[in-house]
Amino acid sequence: MERTKILVTGGAGYIGSHAVVELYEAGFQPVIVDDFSNSQESSVRGIEDILGVRVACHHIDCGDAEALRAIFAEEGSLRGVIHFAAFKAVGESVQKPLAYYQNNVGSLLTLLTVMQEFGVPHLVFSSSCTVYGVPDVLPVTELTPRKPANSPYGNTKKICEDIITDVVHAPASTVRAILLRYFNPIGAHASAKIGELPLGVPQNLVPFVTQTAAGIREKLTIYGNTYDTPDGTNIRDYVHVVDLAKAHVTAVQRLLDGAGEAVETFNVGTGRGNSVLEVVQAFERATGVKLNYVIGEPRAGDVPAIYADVTKSVQELGFQTTTSLEDSLASAWKWQQTL
């Protein structure tokens, strides 16, 4: 039986690589597009080691319309796209807003244009809980008002959501879309062949934790301990990357089945919030490794606390996370030890 082809932009990245594995294992034929500006070729080898098959991988920038058209023509019979490709560091986006707007919004415009030209109807978009800004009420549901974003990164996700919604609702549109707003992905594949591979200094908490535990970093800096939270540190909803990848497979299948509305939004998280200090303590419990950490200044663009209400994802998308915080952190440590 022929597999249904799904294009995965940013498919060599952290979340993208895990989604490629889950897509293939669910019976799809993933096709990777990645410019490797924030990922490495080794992740493609890791994917192929896990699956035992070669996966089509095109080394292009998906903001390059001609290159993208060539891929759509060469691959043929694409039935959908999962769009991960984007710059993603909140702090960096405050420093380089133009680069973020150009890359994140520009690549989406190009992708949607080419999808319409080739009649590819289904899009799963990698969105973010940053669209909620600093929420008034926790946990956030999909109906929580989107507030002014705390960073250019968050604003690009809001703008992209609006663009997709407008395109889907255009009279002659053939595109249907699911917007997945995810919370904080952590952990690695059980095989430890793929995981989070930050280039340079990590922007996310868990790689900083594992690099500190491994002695690569002298100490972990916790950005602020005077937030209005029980222990003063930021609270986030930490979701295992394989659980998150599976949510994309579920979303693709929902689109192919023609279920739901023409454009839908789902939170992908655990439904629980954990503080930075709780993550540090959970890591120490899961691994037996003590962490050297210090308290630093709060970071621009960080919101004090956010975590998901996942009722809609469970009831309508049929998706629920299964991996505990400790198990997620143990998998991240196993991955770090193989690097």
UniProtKB/TrEMBL annotation:
EC number(s) on file: 5.1.3.2
Catalytic activity: UDP-alpha-D-glucose = UDP-alpha-D-galactose
InterPro entries in alphabetical order: NAD(P)-bd_dom (IPR016040), NAD(P)-bd_dom_sf (IPR036291), UDP_G4E (IPR005886)
Keywords of this entry: Carbohydrate metabolism, Isomerase, NAD
GO molecular function, one term: UDP-glucose 4-epimerase activity
Span of domain NAD(P)-binding: 7-329
Cofactors named for this entry: NAD(+)
Signal peptide residue numbers: none
The organism's place on the tree of life at top rank: Bacteria
Pathway: Carbohydrate metabolism; galactose metabolism
Gene3D superfamilies tied to this protein: NAD(P)-binding Rossmann-like Domain, UDP-galactose 4-epimerase, domain 1
Protein family: Belongs to the NAD(P)-dependent epimerase/dehydratase family.
Assembly with partners or alone: Homodimer.
Full protein name: UDP-glucose 4-epimerase
Phylogenetic placement of the source organism: Bacteria, Pseudomonadati, Bacteroidota, Cytophagia, Cytophagales
